[in-house]
Write a structure and sequence with these properties.
Largest sheet: 3 strands, antiparallel
Number of strands: 13
Strand order of the largest sheet: 11-12-13
Oligomer: single chain
GO molecular function, one term: DNA binding
Number of domains: 5
Shape: extended
Helix content: 25-40%
Number of helices: 20
Radius of gyration: 33 Å
Distance between the termini: 38 Å
Length: 559
């Protein structure tokens, strides 16, 4: 809504209405003055401004400073709906009801007290002096200035992202924390059921809790955690220390897991405690649970323990490929893999689809029997000397140009920067994930011993992304160029799946499209392809061979 014009008579008040048009205020209307009607939004009879709205409700009216609707703290405006930052957060976590202390109908917590009464008790240090909430409010409440108790996060917008100079804190001189060797056993191992707002016992050893808190604050400062994240982690430390069965022992991962519903930064707590050797990982790895669920219906001798591969993805990939064959053998009445012969393996490979599925089936069966033979579970390896040939690979294919163009012109600076590095310089997904902020300097990319002059469109998008990165995570210690809200608190690179989610397509597809475009433009110049994209001659041949493909369109692209 645009600001209304001023009354031409008094030049002090806005006109009464702009639609339908009224060129005078109510005081200067011919035949007046007249009494303005009540505000059609809040029904207030005073402070009329224009268009049927008062000064508090009209978007173009000067800022009207008043008291918070819930806690009565003075200093709020309509931009926050006349609520202070604390009450905005309080309202999202609590429901409306009648306050036990002041008898007003406002959002109240599980103890049936509103934020005004809670602040009155907090000012009297009720938790330290032994006062109850009702006793702290028996003589009334002291009003206060709004937004003066803590630094808000969600309500501040871009103001919260400005770096704040932190005074260096003296490190604790206490002795290093060493976990105790003994353990208090429990009679019944029952999982705790925790919920937000539950009152937890305090740590039995305040000195140990303070020492851990000091280490946590040092860790948070190094990682660039926000004040709210640091506060959640401190609360989590006190919670797990109070719930421990053995004070002073390593903290069990299962105990930290139980804190998940209470919002205490459990993932960051695990990382911190593991770094100081105070974590006891007592949870079953997800891979073991997944594996047990996949082979639960196989005969007992078939699902005996196996060796652990280096990569969990390899286990999932190969087991999924071998499971149809294993289920077929189990359905045919075979109880053990010792009964499987070479002919069974050949029949299983022949039954798989041609190309990649057939090679993958043979490779997965070979891995299983090779492991069993190494552990002396089977007498012979029926897959021995079975030739699978070369694995089936798909040739490089162009990507959808509309998707690439949308990514390059995206208003999201992260997506645009990722797409530019892929579409102009054909970086691999691994190179993108591991790029650091120091790899880009002097308008060049220093990568794996190569110096790559960056194209002007790439520099523009990188500059926009770096501005966004600095404004969003000003205190992050993560050296990687591309980060998100989780990795900003750590030192790890982003995951491969994150790249695809940001781009809306596979990162490797954009890289392949860029290399194919260069192959077409240069007529398959192998040396130039190797130098430009850092490929080996064997790798470049895969792309130059696509020139002879009948479906490859060598025409120029527009856009």
């Amino acid at each position: 809504m645009s600001p209304p014009k001023l009354c031409p008579v008094c030049r002090a008040n806005p006109v009464a209405f702009t639609n339908p048009r009224v060129d005078f205020c109510y005081q200067c209307l011919p035949g007046g003055p007249f009494t303005p009607p009540p505000c059609r939004a809040c029904t207030a009879v005073d402070g009329y401004y224009s268009a049927g709205l008062c000064r508090r409700c009209h978007p173009a009216a000067p800022q009207h400073v008043t008291s918070c609707k819930h806690c009565l703290g003075w200093g709020v405006t309509r931009h926050t709906k006349y609520l202070c930052w604390g009450c905005v957060n309080w309202r999202t976590k609590n429901t409306y009801g009648t306050c036990t202390g002041c008898r007003r109908h406002v959002p109240v917590d599980e103890r049936r007290f509103c934020r005004l009464c809670w602040r009155q008790a907090a000012m009297l240090r009720w938790s330290r002096t032994g006062l109850s909430l009702a006793e702290a409010n028996k003589d009334g409440q002291q009003l206060f200035i709004a937004n003066m108790f803590s630094t808000p996060l969600a309500a501040r917008g871009s103001a919260s992202r400005t770096p704040i100079a932190v005074e260096p804190r003296a490190r604790s001189t206490a002795a290093p924390i060493r976990p105790v060797d003994h353990e208090q056993l429990v009679l019944f191992d029952a999982r705790r059921s925790l919920r937000p707002g539950i009152v937890l016992p305090p740590p039995p050893d305040p000195h140990a809790a303070q020492a851990l808190t000091d280490l946590l604050e040092d860790h948070a400062a190094q990682r660039g955690w926000s004040p709210s994240t640091c506060k959640k982690a401190r609360s989590g430390i006190n919670a797990v220390l109070g719930l421990q069965d053995t004070p002073g022992a390593r903290i069990k991962t299962s105990l930290i897991r139980d804190l998940g519903p209470t919002g205490r930064a459990t993932r960051l707590l695990r990382e911190f405690l593991a770094g100081i050797d105070m974590l006891d990982d007592d949870l079953t790895p997800a891979l073991k649970t997944w594996f047990a669920g996949k082979v639960i219906d196989l005969p007992a001798q078939m699902r005996a323990p196996r060796s652990r591969a280096r990569n969990h993805g390899t286990i999932r990939y190969k087991l999924n490929a071998a499971l149809p064959t294993l289920h077929t053998w189990a359905g045919d009445g075979y109880e053990s893999l010792r009964e499987i012969t070479r002919q069974h393996v050949l029949d299983a490979i022949a039954a798989a689809d041609e190309g990649g599925p057939r090679y993958l089936t043979g490779s997965a069966l070979h891995s299983i029997f090779h492991t069993l033979k190494g552990h002396k579970v089977v007498f012979r390896d029926p897959t021995l000397h079975i030739k699978l040939g070369a694995p089936h690979t798909r040739g490089p294919e162009p990507a959808d140009f509309d998707v690439i163009r949308d990514a390059l012109n995206s208003p999201d600076p992260t997506r645009a920067a990722l797409a530019a590095l892929l579409a102009f310089h054909a970086l691999t997904p691994g190179q993108l994930r591991n790029l650091t902020t120091t790899d880009i300097r002097d308008r060049r990319l220093h990568l794996d011993g190569r110096v790559i002059p960056l194209a002007e469109p790439v520099l523009i998008r990188l500059a926009a992304y770096l501005d966004y990165r600095t404004a969003t995570w000003p205190n992050t210690a993560n050296p990687h160029l591309f980060i998100h809200r989780r990795t900003a608190l750590e030192l790890k690179p982003v995951g491969g799946r994150w790249l695809g989610l940001q781009l809306g397509t596979a990162a490797r597809g954009i890289r392949t499209d860029r290399i194919l475009n260069e192959v077409i433009a240069t007529g398959g110049d192998l040396k130039r392809i190797c130098i430009l994209f850092g490929l080996t001659p064997a790798g470049a041949v895969l792309y130059t061979a696509a020139l002879s493909h009948p479906d490859l369109d060598p025409g120029p692209r527009q856009g």
